[in-house]
Amino acid sequence: MAEAVGRPMDRIDGRAKITGAARYAVEHQPARLAHAALVMSTIARGRIVELDTREAERTAGVVAVLSHHNAARLPAARKMASNPATRELQLLQDDRVLYANQPIAVVVADTPEAADEGAQLVRAHYAVEPAEVSLERRREQAFTPQHAARPDQKPDSGHGDAEAGLQQAEVRIEQTYLTPAETHNPMEPHGTVAVWEGPERLTLYDATQGIFGDRERVAGLLGLRAENVRVISSYLGGGFGSKGPTWSHVVLAAMAARHVKRPVKLALARPQMFGPIGYRAPTRQTVALGARRDGTLTAVRHDTIAQTSSFDEFMEPCGMAARMLYACPNIATTHRLVRGDVGTPSYMRAPGWAPGTFALECAMDELAVALGMDPLQLRIKNHADSDPETGRPWSSKGLLECYRLGARRFGWSGRPSAPRSLHDGSTLIGWGLATSVYPAHRTASAARVRLQADGRVIVEAGTQDLGTGTYTVMTQIAADALGVPVSRVTMRLGDTQLPKTPVSGGSQTVASTGSAVHDAARSLREMLVGLALVDQRSPLCGAAPEAVVVEDGRMSLRDTPARGESFEALLARHGRQEVEANAEARPGPEHDQWAMYAFGAQFAEVRVDADLGTIRVSRMVGAFEAGRIVNAKTARSQLIGGMVWGIGLALHERTVMDERLGRPVNNNLAEYHVPVNADVPAIDIAWVDGNDPLVSAIGAKGIGEIGITGAGAAIANAVFHATGRRVRTLPITPDTLL
Amino acid sequence: MRPFQYTRARDVAGAVSAAAAPEARFLAGGTNLVDLMKNGVERPARLIDITRLPLGTIEERGDGGVRIGATVRNTDAANHPLVRGRYPVLSEALLSGASPQLRNMATMGGNLLQRTRCPYFYDATFAECNKRAPGSGCAARHGVARMHAILGASEACIATHPSDMAVALAALDAAVRVTGPAGDRTLALADFYRLPGDSPERDTDLRPGELITAIDVPALDFARRSRYLKIRDRASYAFALVSVAAVLDLDGGGVIRAARVALGGVAHAPWRLPEAERRLIGQRAGEAAYRTLADALVRDARPLPDNAFKVVLARRSIVRALTAAAAMRV
């Protein structure tokens, strides 16, 4: 039986999605359902002096209007979260407005139309206070964050003496790079259906990447026992980090449902997603590099200032790559925050690593220019053979192969070094590259695998499928580990009644939950083989366990394949309806002994109209090493998706704020630009075959985020090569090149 | 959204009489109106669906011009042999607008009547917008104005008209046929749109209750040599930073017999300067001549810091579009 893992298997849930059978969170329609619409603040800072809800309440179909006047008081609501992954929420507890697009009322009605109409008729009168939404104007008030996004992301780092390293350098560059606020725009807006099953028992159908975190947070805020809250997230239309933490609307849906004593559905409208559900923080990053004439780095300094809200902390960890990407004796990084009257920023695909590699990898390109050295050679020259900061060995690292593989596929060796040397009529052509990197995260996860009498296998793990292929890859992993064809396996996920799993974030699902599924399936296999070996009626009785192979649901002796029996035969003889095994898989001490990262190299070609400034990415090559690739098809899609987002990072995405009014002005998909098909060239994806058993039993490192890292820099570097213009502020729009 | 009454008009007269009711709006493709209703910018009490009216044909007229019915879908007009063959600039302009899905729904009349994409207009929760709430002020003047007008704006309003199609129609000297309570009339496209002045709430010179029935594109033999150039922040589905409709008539020796250039993305209406176009007559086609016209077209530009780039971009785009038109084999 051929292994399922590695194959380009089609998505198991593809048909359900195409036919509409897959039910997303807000497609659940419990009986007596009421519909909620949010009213959002239209100022960035102040107090609500008067909230006129009379007209809304008179609207036909409106059932209730919740506001700070009548919403249930939640004693836990204002507490600063001790867990950095949670966010402080705005739950109608007082009259304060802390940012534009903050929920200030909830209109509940019999129909969504009536709820929306009611919400438009709520009139808020404010005592407006001066607001500041600009990072730049608060730069002097930067402070050191107290709450890192992850425990392994301390704000400052240093080894060696970066200043001395810069002094010693024969060539130095120091530049500042600005990246804008970017708003997640998953195809599926956030939404929740809240159903109270009793006074103390709540079910949420929620578009969340983290059902267990959601359960804890909602239970904590509403004063419920966590086991009395059930969260279901069967399908997601993308999340990209924005559905990781629990945001205000989730709790507001539950509050509204309790208030009207009916199930309540609350779906965000697209404009309502600009502020209250996280976004990528704007950053100002200064990178200084020092090198000897031969390109050897003598110093790396990466200082980041990022924005956070006035009431909570989120640190965009841009400096992480600088700590580990290149061999250098002197590395220093800092992270500072400035407060703004804005919603709290949060995780967006490769938080920190995406904007951070933009700055670092553009700086490397600038250094290569200053040295007169090929940028690929500069990177190879400074390849780190162990983690420069900790000295730990890499669990595995295929970066040099990625450089070679990518360069060959792209044809990098034919690149003339001087900018503006390639053109096609009045179109300037440029080639750029950058290194991609993302940590191989893993956290504890449980899973259960059950064999039924009919030979079918049920795999259960809480987890979530963002649309990335979790259903499919878990099926493949379980099938191989147990020794059955994938067609017999059914994956169940997205329910807190299933074994506990971590958030689908940090590219960790395969390494974390995949390991648990693998371990549970292995354990079940051992139980079944063990049962046969001591069963006098089994043809395998008395055989040594290591002599047994399992293929296609049949156990047999490796050397005498005729001697064996199927799982079903074994269960039938024992009168068992089912046999199940549970596993709890957690990262071992090796995660503290080795440095674990996925790596890659990206190459981009751009075509720039010299007169009009328009930029088209005409080719991209991404070569990656991410351990074992579980599904060649979904992996390719994930990596392409990341690189497409890199095109957006470089050329399109920006949440535009009116700084006088403190409000976003491009809060829709017509004006908030992400790449459309016409912006995306053929993207060539390749990977180096790998297998990293130190990261996880399945040898996989995770590929959800690495595709966007480096992509922005590869494109920006290509724009420089095409035009001779170094644009250090994203996005690079036509007007910046005129 | 405010609840509304929906009626489907059976004939043009019925549509016009239904529109006499208070707070009535004609509904065609709905790609803009329904959006505005969701945002609360438009709150009609009654929608009169005109998509079943017999206004969905494209016909050649006796004089060689083409009449395009008001409810013809943008996609159908763009791909119609008469349009593609005789007015490439119009086909290109239509195809550069919106997305295929929107073009499949949007009608010709509706395209003309698109409202501005100024964010302070489009989002009714912004307090200041003279176009939406006369007298309330102009937030764009003090706010984000990158997409806004550099020509013909007023203190009251710096909005731009978002249509690509209208820019091509302006270059083609098209006319808009309307019918209404006071009968039928025809407005030259040049007279159809208004500059904002003191009453930016009025985009056009349509009178209350008037219905667009057709667009007449005149016979213009040399319009086969015409191009539409749209500069935008991404390759598709984006409004113009600047756009140019260029129509060029050359004699066999490369001398300009006529040139027509309309600019989009720069003003409250498609922007043309016929007297500057006339100065090109008799000049040799080439960058020098095109630059003269380009400079003239933006001479009166009054940009804001956010959109000063449009002056340079417009100038270069005009030269590029005329160059492209001259290069056509017709």
Characteristic key phrases:
heterodimer, A: 738 residues, alpha+beta, seven-stranded mixed sheet, five-stranded mixed sheet, B: 330 residues, five-stranded antiparallel sheet, 29% helix
Strand order of the largest sheet of chain A: 3-5-1-12-9-10-11
- Helical amount among residues of chain A, as a percent range? 10-25%
* Strand order of the biggest β-sheet of chain B: 4-5-8-6-7
Distance from first to last alpha carbon of chain A: 60 Å
Form type of chain B: globular
> Mean pLDDT of chain B, as a whole number?
97
Counting DSSP H or I runs of 4 or more residues, the number of helices of chain B is 13
Strand tally of chain B: 11
Number of strands of chain A: 29
Rg calc of chain B: 19 Å
Which helices and strands, and how do they pair?
The complex is a heterodimer of chains A (738) and B (330).
Chain A: H1 14-19, E1 34-40, E2 46-52, H2 54-58, E3 62-67, E4 96-97, E5 103-109, H3 112-121, E6 123-128, E7 157-159, H4 162-168, E8 171-179, E9 191-198, E10 201-206, H5 211-222, E11 229-232, H6 248-260, E12 264-267, E13 283-291, E14 297-309, H7 320-324, E15 331-340, H8 353-371, H9 375-381, H10 399-410, E16 422-424, E17 427-439, E18 445-452, E19 457-460, H11 470-482, E20 489-492, H12 509-533, E21 548-551, E22 554-557, E23 564-566, H13 567-573, E24 578-585, H14 590-593, E25 597-609, E26 615-625, H15 632-651, E27 657-658, E28 663-664, E29 683-687, H16 711-723
Parallel strand pairs in A: 1-12, 10-11, 14-15, 19-20, 26-29
Antiparallel strand pairs in A: 1-5, 2-4, 2-6, 3-5, 7-15, 8-13, 9-10, 9-12, 13-14, 16-17, 17-25, 18-19, 18-24, 21-22, 22-23, 25-26, 27-28
Chain B: E1 5-8, H1 12-18, E2 24-27, H2 33-39, E3 46-49, E4 58-60, E5 66-69, H3 74-79, H4 81-86, H5 88-95, H6 100-105, H7 108-112, H8 119-122, H9 165-171, E6 175-180, E7 183-188, H10 189-192, E8 211-217, E9 226-231, E10 242-250, E11 256-264, H11 274-278, H12 287-298, H13 309-326
Parallel strand pairs in B: 1-3, 2-3
Antiparallel strand pairs in B: 4-5, 5-8, 6-7, 6-8, 9-10, 10-11
Helix pairs in contact in B: 5-9, 12-13
